[in-house]
Design brief:
The chain is an all-alpha fold. Helices cover about 75% and strands about 0% of the residues. It has one domain: Orthogonal Bundle (MetI-like fold), CATH 1.10.3720.10.
Length: about 290
């Protein structure tokens, strides 16, 4: 009986164990490759240690992509959380469940669209003689070079906020409904208005929403590739770490692309692992109690 139960457990866990094996095997292989000199220009697995990483950090394009990716992550965390908090606060005030569901779906919809499709749409909207500039010209306003120089970075950061703010709003909205109704009712009895209730009671309970919004926003920014590539392809003003990695892989500098991959994994893990540890700790304490 015990043997049968053990077999059932192994069979149940088999897909998970296989997936974990493939992922960690790929990470281990990339790490080994990053310690060699293997590329199309040097097709031998000569061990060079950390020299590949030194070469990586001495590359101006890599440093530029790293700074831009971190800046993108910071702006998306701040801007996405602000927009998400505003949207969720507005939705929380709606009494009609049907209307709230419709509006929530409307704000979530941008994330349901593939980023490539969003990029194509926004590339048209940002064109110099079409889209927004056509509207500006019709009312006598000057046109804006949305995708020229540094403007391209700010334009695409704004698009990413549009894409992900609805998802962040959904996270906040979920935490709002965990606020004890008795606390809200007591505040209303004491004469508190809606704004006071939101600022002093509801929003302080949304710490988990802020944590989740920050973690997911940062991870979304670190993985940013589809949006800038579909709008401007490989462009020095919108190049991210993933685009740098892709560019090195295309040019078959496999050791450099592997080193960039390992660095990106480590950077993502530095964000995801602390949150996972925090969540696991809360779950264990909840079970113990």
């Amino acid at each position: 009986m015990r043997l049968l139960k053990f077999r059932e457990i192994i069979l149940f866990l088999a897909p998970l164990l296989f997936t974990v094996f493939v992922i960690f095997y790929g990470i281990a292989w990339n790490f080994w490759l990053s310690l060699t000199s293997f590329s199309i220009y040097h097709p031998r697995y000569d061990f060079v240690g950390i020299n590949t990483y030194l070469q990586l950090f001495n590359d101006y394009d890599f440093r530029n992509a790293l700074v831009r990716t971190i800046a993108w992550a910071g702006l998306l965390v701040i801007g996405g959380n602000i927009l998400g908090l505003i949207i969720s606060t507005a939705l929380f005030q709606i009494r009609s469940n049907r209307l709230r569901s419709v509006l929530t779906s409307y704000f979530i919809y941008p994330m349901a669209i593939p980023l490539v499709a969003s990029g194509v749409i926004w590339r048209w909207l940002f064109e110099s003689v079409k889209g927004f500039n056509a509207i500006f010209a019709s009312v006598g306003l000057p046109k804006i070079d949305w995708l020229t120089g540094e403007n391209a970075f700010w334009s695409l950061v704004g698009v990413s906020m549009w894409v992900y703010s609805g998802f962040i709003a959904l996270l906040y909205l979920a935490t709002f409904y965990n606020v004890p109704p008795s606390a809200i009712e007591a505040a209303r009895v004491d004469g508190a208005d809606t704004l006071t209730i939101m600022v002093k009671i509801v929003i302080p309970y949304s710490k988990l929403g802020f944590i989740l919004g920050g973690v997911f926003s940062a991870l979304f920014a670190l993985q940013m590739f589809d949006l800038p590539y579909s709008v401007l392809y490989i462009n020095p003003f919108t190049s991210t770490l993933v685009m740098y990695l892709y560019n090195k892989f295309v040019y078959m500098a496999f050791n450099i692309s592997s080193a960039a991959c390992i660095f990106l994994i480590a950077l993502s893990a530095s964000i995801a692992i602390p949150y996972s540890t925090y969540g696991l700790r809360k779950w264990i304490l909840g079970v113990i109690r």
